[in-house]
Task: inverse folding
């Protein structure tokens, strides 16, 4: 009988996710369960509800609860140039191909608070590609997008960003791109001049432009297999022929039904190239 | 009613992990039907050494876990540095970059608790040497969900704190020395 309470909780979680979708069109129903349960439990504890049913009632009736809950559901902290070898591979292996195009579109899908986006913009500037590139930075989390757009990070994170940048083969000094004041590093606003920030959901939205590079790192790990497939299908449809897709270092196309649409390009860095078919 | 035997072993180890795992994993025969998921606390420097280290020593296949990998019998999966390793109800693995738990990512509790929820009675939970409390809550979750709990005898552990915490959180676990754990895993009916 010890299993019974667990099962009730599973039902409650499913109902809560359904309620979020019906009421607000935030669709977490196909997120990977282990992570979503952990995050929801944290939210329930910290928001002070004794059950998910009680939380569901409050969310349904009180729209002010939504942003509070979303903070738990989509929180994501990254680093600039996280996994320097990935950015080195982009620089050394992918950039030479991109240089053959007169104009470029790059999509940072699930950009969260912007660290990956700015890493790419700096890399493109160093490689002389920034001027011909339009960057799309998308996320479902408004707060995160606002942080990304502001481009201000705590100063104590800068040493790590700097070290990563150097290891990624950076051709300039990261300090060229920010101003430090009051314990915060404020990124140069010219880094944003070719960036479009936008609300976009990999779960419910569709293709919006033809991309030459899509970077989507450590986002798909939060999706279940069906949703991963949807997102990868979206990437397949969004990429120009022979366009590039970069995933997180522990993510893989191997278990997806879209695997055949892509070829390994830099295998150990999870950089794929869309087939030319 | 036929109760399915244990199929999946989840192991948590910290300080002293390499030697303790070295006394267990290499002795498991290649035809063992067990799947083994391991979290070792390693610095988040993004280099993965554990899988490589044990690949050479083990008769089982040893891999570093990737997102959405199916859990197969006869394979040892190590959590990659800087990610939590989790078990989903469809017997696949998932990773997460959520914040560290008890200063750890990967976290033993995260693996054990997700496994307990997904596959409770199919589990053996095993806590080895370590100098913190990680895994104690997870062990209680596994035993509470009908799995088997085993803890390395703290008197034989390089660092006794982690086994002691697991025993305190879950007094009904079996407390065994490394050689006995190794025998148990070799002989368990899968």
Result:
């Amino acid at each position: 009988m010890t299993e019974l309470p667990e099962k009730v909780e599973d039902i409650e979680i499913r109902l809560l996710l359904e309620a979020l979708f019906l009421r607000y069109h935030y669709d977490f129903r196909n997120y990977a369960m282990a992570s979503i349960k952990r995050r929801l439990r944290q939210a329930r504890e910290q928001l002070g509800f004794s059950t998910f049913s009680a939380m569901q009632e409050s969310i349904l009736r009180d729209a002010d609860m939504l942003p509070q809950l979303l903070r738990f559901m989509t929180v994501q902290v990254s680093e600039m140039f996280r996994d320097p070898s990935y950015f080195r591979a982009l620089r050394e292996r992918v950039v030479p191909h991109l240089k053959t195009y007169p104009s470029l579109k790059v999509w940072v899908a699930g950009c969260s608070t912007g660290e990956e986006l700015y890493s790419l913009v700096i890399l493109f500037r160093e490689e002389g590609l920034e001027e011909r590139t339009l960057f799309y930075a998308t996320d479902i989390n408004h707060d995160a997008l606002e942080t990304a757009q502001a481009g201000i990070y705590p100063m104590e994170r800068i040493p790590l960003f700097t070290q990563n940048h150097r290891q990624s083969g950076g051709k300039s000094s990261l300090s060229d791109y920010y101003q430090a004041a009051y314990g915060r590093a404020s990124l140069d606003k010219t880094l944003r001049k070719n960036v479009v920030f936008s609300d976009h959901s990999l779960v419910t939205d569709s293709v919006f432009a033809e991309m030459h590079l899509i970077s989507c790192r450590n986002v798909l790990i939060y999706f279940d297999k069906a949703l991963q497939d949807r997102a990868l299908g979206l990437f397949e449809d969004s990429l120009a022929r022979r366009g590039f897709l970069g995933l997180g270092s522990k993510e893989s196309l191997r278990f997806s039904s879209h695997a055949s649409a892509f070829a390994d390009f830099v295998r150990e860095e999870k950089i794929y190239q869309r087939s030319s078919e | 009613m036929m109760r399915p035997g244990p199929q999946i072993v989840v192991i948590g180890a910290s300080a002293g992990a390499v030697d303790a795992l070295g006394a267990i994993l290499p002795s498991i025969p290649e035809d063992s039907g067990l799947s083994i998921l391991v979290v070792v606390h390693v610095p988040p420097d993004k280099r993965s050494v554990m899988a490589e280290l044990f690949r050479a020593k083990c008769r089982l296949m040893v891999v570093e876990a990737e997102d959405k990998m199916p859990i197969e019998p006869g394979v040892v999966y190590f959590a990659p540095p800087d990610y939590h390793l989790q078990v989903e109800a469809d017997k696949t693995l998932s990773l997460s970059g959520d914040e560290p738990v008890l200063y750890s990512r990967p976290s033993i509790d995260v693996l054990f608790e997700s496994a307990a929820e997904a596959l409770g009675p199919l589990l053996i939970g095993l806590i080895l040497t370590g100098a913190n409390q990680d895994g104690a809550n997870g062990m209680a979750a596994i035993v509470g969900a009908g799995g088997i709990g085993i803890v390395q005898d703290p008197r034989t552990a390089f660092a006794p704190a982690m086994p002691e915490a697991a025993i305190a959180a879950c007094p009904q676990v079996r407390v065994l020395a490394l050689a006995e754990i190794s025998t148990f895993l070799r002989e368990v009916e899968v």
Remarks:
- Strands of chain A lie at 104-109, 133-139, 152-154, 178-181, 184-187, 195-199, 211-216, 239-247, 262-266, 271-274.
- The CA atoms of residues 260 and 275 of chain A lie 8 Å apart.
- The radius of gyration of chain A is 20 Å.
- Chain A touches chain B at residues 2-3, 6, 32-35, 37-39, 75-78, 83, 218, 220-222, 224-225, 228, 248-252, 254-255 (CB under 8 Å).
